[in-house]
Amino acid sequence: MPAADSASALTTAPDAKAPPSAFGKGFVLDAWYFVALSRDVAPGSLKRHELMGEPVLVGRTKAGAVYGMRDICPHRAAPLSAGRLVEHPGEGETVECCYHGWRFRPDGVCAAIPSLVEDQAYEAGRIRVRSYPVVESQGMVFVWMRSDPRSDAAPDHAPPVFPGVVGGEAKLVEAMDFDSHIDHAVVGLMDPAHGPYVHQQWWWRSAHSMHEKAKAFEPRPEGFAMVRHAPSSNSRAYRILGGAPATEITFRLPGYRWEHILVGERQVLALTCLTPVTETKTRITQIFWSDHWVFGIAKPFLRMGVRAFLKQDGGMVNLQNEGLRYDPALIWIDDADRQAKWYQQLKREWIKSRAEGRSFQNPVQAAVLMWKS
């Protein structure tokens, strides 16, 4: 059965090797990264995160505004997140360093140096801690990572808006750190052929259940989607939703994958956010929203399944690292590895378009991909 494939320009020989330069050379910058659910950033809180090897304090003023700044006091390098949020006349709300009490406004500007005496006219406002644009959207907090950390330019686009954020707050949230560069985490996330070998569960599928798949893909903003379709018959977990589920799976730079399932008028959204902690560590956060009744009954079962999947993927990452430390060339084949190749192309085009000061041109073309899993 021949595959209908309008993306022939992207097709390579079965033994084509993935360029080693595709991995470990940096991150997608000038982009929004997920750091937390809004409900986990309480008023007055100071929470330390690490993004791309940089310490980032994400906080919320008592008035409710979220903000971000580099989590290092420029005086003696103490973490600002170890301090507290205070309020002094004429200063508004500031972050007070735990070491010497230097105070910084949410925009990073120093508001006060308590050790100064009256005749020491040192201009505290000349001192700044690097600030990061932070926004809330759909109950999530996103941090903008700039290509030029010295720039004060506002972000030129908003975080993605995900379909299916319904039913109130997130119904299920699980996170795990993988010992992997985000590039390898993304490629593993979109790999369609590892299921029967890595995720062998009685309630999901087995190695003996191998079906030929043919799925249509099309470009989407900063990514691509497997267009809406009925789930494969050997994916048993969908059966608990009842009815006739139809699912669409989307990937978008810098590291978002979501599955939006429709069951009649009910919706399920399974969102995976990949956040690069360092060059060798990536946080995977799995978030579910739904207005389907099954989440009120089967939540413990679903949580168990999500945790099992993350542990299995994490274990495979550790095994893969045994080989990757020798920096081997990787053989990628069509069609099972086409999504990985698209990710490479999307990333290269993003970096190039930003460097050239032009709009992003999605390199993905519509295609029907075939594989067995």
Q: Overall 3D geometry? A: globular
**Could you tell me how far the N terminus lies from the C terminus, measured between alpha carbons in angstroms?**
16 Å
Count of alpha/pi helices: 5
Strand order of the largest sheet: 13-19-18-17-16-15-14-21
Helix content: 10-25%
Overall pLDDT confidence: 87
Radius of gyration: 23 Å
> Strand-residue fraction?
25-35%
What does this protein look like?
The chain has 373 residues and is an alpha+beta fold. Helix content is 16%, strand content 33%. The protein has helices spanning 182-189, 195-198, 294-297, 299-324, 338-356, and strands at residues 17-18, 31-37, 46-51, 54-60, 66-70, 84-88, 92-96, 103-104, 110-112, 131-132, 134-137, 140-145, 172-178, 212-220, 223-229, 246-252, 256-263, 266-278, 281-290, 330-331, 367-372. An eight-stranded antiparallel beta sheet has the order 13-19-18-17-16-15-14-21, with helices on one face. A four-stranded antiparallel beta sheet has the order 3-4-5-10, with no helix packed on it. The chain has a four-stranded antiparallel beta sheet with strand order 6-7-8-9, with no helix packed on it. Strand 3 and strand 4 (54-60) form a beta hairpin. The longest helix has 26 residues, at 299-324. The protein is globular and about 80 Å long. The model is unreliable at 1-24 (pLDDT under 50).
